[in-house]
Amino acid sequence: MSENIEIQTLGMKANFTVVSDSPITDPASATKENKTSGALKKSSRYRSRSLSASSTDSYSSNSCTGSSSEDDDISPREKIQKNSGGSNDFCVRNINQHAFGRREIEIAEQEMPGIMALRKRAGDDKPLKNAKVIGCTHINAQTAVLIETLSALGASVRWAACNIYSTQNEVAAALAEAGFSVFAWRAETEEDFWWCIDKCINAENWQPNIILDDGGDATHLMLKKYPAMFKLIKGIVEESVTGVHRLYQLSKSGKLTVPAMNVNDSVTKTKFDNLYSCRESIIDSLKRSTDVMFGGKQVIVCGYGEVGKGCAQGLRGVGCIVYVTEIDPICALQASMDGYRVVRLNEVIRNVDIVITATGNKNVVTREHMDKMKSGCIVCNMGHSNTEIDVNSLRTTDLTWEKIRSQVDHVIWPDGKRIILLAEGRLVNLSCSSLSSFVVSITSATQALALIELFNAPPNRYKSDVYLLPKKMDEYVATLHLPTFDAHLTELTDDQAKYMGLNKAGPFKPNYYRY
């Protein structure tokens, strides 16, 4: 049996249920109330500027998703499309883009050594045979590598997007052409968004038995609309702060009837996807979308968790003056010791050039804050939920929206002041840029192992609660990526292992260890 199958048996009996001391409002309620957040209400004024090819290209992130054509005016739901195999069990912008998408997937594979190694090592054993996975994540070239890996490991999958702006249309087309049931396209409406997830869940002659979620939307819809189906699934793997908060709320209220794996707080996800990735992607997103010069700019980062830490480090590295807001005294102390000034948003809002949210909460930046911002201030969100910036408060008749380019809007006040809003408050690094394939490889390998663990776990290993990823799996994911750096681990001697009370093969740290 291959190495990764042995890891399946390393389930954790401990029950980790602590996520925060205070309750977090379920963002799903805000999503319901703000159903029109994906499109401007008719009551607000909106101007659109024509785009030159160069301005579109500067945003497009080497992807044809930024391009437009007459075909884009037709909703994919109204099109009749089939792949070369004759299947129409998908809904994408344009199936004819599949060749370009396939090239992007092949490029991503070269930079994703961990997930490709897992595919090779476990392919013969098919640890996900008979698994029927509902996926609701960002759909890009890196996600496609994960989807095809799950399929190679034996799973049947149906996939939708967790963000209406982050889908790469050509990649979705490539997946559809390869026979995957994908329902996603860039710039979906809110109605389209929920329709796509519903199409994944409610399929004829196909009963899902496990969920891979990013934000909790697939979990939320299945629980609310298909409660009987929800009780039959073997588990949930969740990778975002927002989705994890939802799971802990469900657990606390007794509504979580299946086990769930909190991948977001795994070490590999927290450190690499949140800190190291965001340290680079925040710079890339802001530069591509606004062409801003960073040196000397005053920036406030709301939240100093791993995402906030990455953003602050990256921005300071290019010459910004960085302020931090925090509710947690420990994180605030960390920021202070790292050399940042910790302030309240109201104290500096009139002077800052860039405002970045990274909290996972709601209404962090309100209309009152935006009324006080200076003209030209850039406002964007790095947290998963689109509720951090109160964008709906800007959809009023007294303000004018001017579309500058894809995902870039100027919101203009009656006195001529304007702020620059990116991606309508949604996740800016996936809406206006792209992520490092190497970092996504780490996250994808973590997600795949979590799915394998939950799907193959004995009946009584996991109860209906939220669990952290077993430490051994975290270490295994890291091990898969070390050869890329020609890194060589030191091995403990028998005497050293006995002295430390460790197994020579790991795990090397207790679960309470903070990396």
UniProtKB/TrEMBL annotation:
It catalyses: S-adenosyl-L-homocysteine + H2O = L-homocysteine + adenosine. SMART domains: AdoHcyase, AdoHcyase_NAD. Keywords: Hydrolase, NAD, One-carbon metabolism. The keyword Transcription does not apply. Binds 1 NAD(+) per subunit. It holds the Pfam family AdoHcyase_NAD. It is an enzyme of class 3 (hydrolase). Residues 20-89 are annotated as: Disordered. Its EC number is 3.13.2.1. Pathway: Amino-acid biosynthesis; L-homocysteine biosynthesis; L-homocysteine from S-adenosyl-L-homocysteine: step 1/1. Its cofactor is NAD(+). Residues 49-68 have a biased composition (Low complexity). Residues 274-435 form the S-adenosyl-L-homocysteine hydrolase NAD binding domain. NCBIfam families: ahcY, PRK05476.2-3. Belongs to the adenosylhomocysteinase family. This is Adenosylhomocysteinase. It comes from Nicrophorus vespilloides (Boreal carrion beetle). The lineage of its organism: Eukaryota, Metazoa, Ecdysozoa, Arthropoda, Hexapoda.
